[in-house]
Amino acid sequence: QVQLVESGGGLVQPGGSLRLSCAASVSIFSLNTLGWYRQAPGKQRELVARIPRTGSSIYADSVKGRFTISRDIAENTVYLRMNSLKPEDTGIYYCNAESGTPTRVYWGQGTQVTVSS
Q: What pLDDT, on a 0 to 100 scale, did the predictor assign at position 44?
């Protein structure tokens, strides 16, 4: 069982920045992928960014060039740095992890991000 705990959400003005953190209860090096998803009101949950154990990270087209996913293996934490935030970035951001064969999927409880003036 993997537990994920997000933090770092909040209210920010358009053009501002936030950094989300997700602490895992296991070594993140043992996980196949780590990712961030978001869900806006009335919309489906969507992938924001994902980082595999090996290989390149992927990003949603809407956040490319503005968001950066990274990880600290020693701290078992994955981050999402969000710059140049827009109102359409508003939503609940969820940390996601996948591990094992067959794949098991784990979710955090979510953290609210609101971009508004």
A: 97
